[in-house]
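Q: Could you fold this chain for me?
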Amino acid sequence: MRTFSIGGIHPPGYKLSAGKPIQRAALPKQSVVLLNQQIGALAVPVVAKGDEVKTGQLIAKSGGFVSANIHAPVSGKISKIDLIPDTGGYKHKAIFIDVVDDVWVDTIDRSDVLIKDCNLDATAIVAKIAEAGIVGMGGAAFPTQVKLTPPHGKKVDVLIVNAVECEPYLTSDHQLMMEKGEEILIGTTILMKAIQAKRGVIGIENNKPDAIAHLKKLSAQYPGIEIIPLKVQYPQGGEKQLIEAIIGRQVPSGAFPIEVGAIVQNVATVFAVYEAVQKNKPLFERIITVTGKSVSRPGNYLTRIGTPLSDLMHEAGGLPEDAAKVIGGGPMMGKALVNLSVPVTKGCSGLLVLTEKETLRNEIKNCIRCTKCVRACPMGLEPYLFMTLIEHEEWGKLEKERIMDCIECGCCTYSCPSARPLLDYLKIGKSKVGEVIRTRKQ
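A: Sure. Below is the predicted structure, expressed as structure tokens.
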């Protein structure tokens, strides 16, 4: 069974919401749409206080080459444009929409009719994706049109669809494949056409046998698309790990997938591409897994962007009494939330509630030089050394030891028998070294 060759771990799955049909979450009373929903420049508002908007209407334009359009996820009136805290507690500008009803713009095809044929050329497809404001929906939120525009001279021979969903607890991508399999395959063919790749591969870990069988059956009608089962191994959803697992090519340090002729797109992003190109539907809603061992109704919820996470928590039965921490995303790479009033964004894939017992950290002990963190690191790094260098503020040595290659997967912390907070330190180190590199380039 295929997988990547360096490091990795196998944490328990806890897929409590697996097999739960996608449910449509209720509209919020007020939608708060952050303008920093993508890596890159902030989107620039094209509406003002008092304006009335419809669902799907453009409300903020891309602020640069690496940026993305933002559309109204609801219809109503703009009450203000103001600063609010994001999931990390940092204040960012957002558009506040008081919800009146749910009137969509006329250009969106809301029918359930499957549209297979796409007559647009590659340039028009990329333009349509950019217009729809699609970003990577696996968490990184990188503007999709930028990924589809490789540098001059770089050739792509394979599109890889990331349907791994290796984070424990999360099931939104799994359920999406079960309910929208053919739309995903059409979206894959559209993306292959956009980058002029003759081969498309959808990688799925073998803990989802129903999704593998379902897409294999459907893919018989779509030439050039292959479904490849993968061994369950975290963090196989990382781009570099997935590329090696599927096509056996290793992306060099500091390089992007395009260097080995590949482009990777998350399966939810591929579905959003189908809706944008074939249905004229911008990205203003997404599926989010709400889960946790104490959550009364764990499930997969189709939720409008800008919905307060507290509303989404209510859909799943409310915040459990024994909740100690709420994570935005999965337990390995997600971030603890400051509060539940923050809104859903395009990159939000999960809402995970943990009890005090689950969040309890063991007492930190001295490093015993066991090298478990080194063996677990999927990037071939030395986390124990990084922590020491960070404690002594050796930023130059950290850069030479390739700390910027760290993908912040958490394998090192998970595997450490001394309960050392390696990932916490590595995040600090990456931030500091990143500042040094940026200063040097100025």
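A (continued): The domain at 122-279 is CATH 3.40.50.11540 (Rossmann fold).
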